[in-house]
Each structure stands twice: as C-alpha cells, then as structure tokens.
Specification:
UPF0145_dom_sf, about 120 residues, UPF0145_YbjQ-like, Translation Initiation Factor IF3, single chain, elongated, 4 strands, alpha+beta
C-alpha cells in the first residue's frame, strides 16, 4: 500500500478551500455563512475485526483500519465541501474532526467547520 492510501485531505482542484486556521493569510473574510459539517458512519467488516484482534496480540499498526479511517475522513471532508459550496461558501475555516462510536455499529466521523466567503487582499 502506498502513502496515498494512508493520507487524505481535499483535492487541489477543490472550489472550496478547507483550513484548520481562523483565517487565511492574504485573504479577507467577506461573509461568515455558519457551521457546516460532513458526516459518515462506517461499519467494520468481520475480516478486519478478526485481523485487528490478532494483530493486537503481537502489536504494531493496524494497516487495514488505518486505511479505512483515512478513506472515511476523506469522505467526511468531501461532504463538508459539498455542503459549504451549496450554501455559497468558497472556504471552510477552523475545520475539525470528531470521531465516535455509533451505537456499537461502527465509527462515526464528522468533519465540521465554519463556512465563509473569502477574497484575496489587494496590495
């Protein structure tokens, strides 16, 4: 498995900039639209649970679960971007993740932040 399978984030071609900061250097916040989020819930299949259980006996990274979590976070960001864009935003500020168990059925991953309209500052 390559490094791309363990990473994530938005596509460089995205029309909505997603940052974890309060502002974007070189840009002015024109309008704050409000909170947006992208949510997904993933169940674990039996094979990965058995593999993870066996791996926990000897220690080490659970690569299958790492890959699944990276894919899940990417999907949550994609949904966050879709919601922000549908509300007229071109940026999401202060993006964060929240991860929790969902009724013992799987893992809930929520990407959330503040949708805003930003414009470049002119010198």
């Amino acid at each position: 498995m390559g490094i791309d399978e363990y990473g994530g984030g938005q596509s460089p071609q995205s029309a909505v900039l997603v940052v974890t900061t309060n502002d974007v250097p070189g840009y002015r916040i024109e309008r704050v639209i409000g909170e947006v989020f992208g949510l997904t819930v993933r169940s674990r299949h039996l094979g990965s649970q058995i593999g993870a259980g066996l791996k926990s006996l000897v220690g080490g990274e659970l690569k299958g679960l790492t890959k699944t979590l990276a894919q899940t976070r990417t999907q949550a960001i994609e949904r966050l971007v879709e919601q922000a864009q549908s509300r007229g935003a071109n940026a999401v500020l202060m993006m964060r993740f929240d991860v929790s168990e969902a009724a013992d059925a799987g893992t809930e991953v929520c990407a959330y932040g503040t949708a805003a309209v930003i414009t470049p500052r002119h010198a």
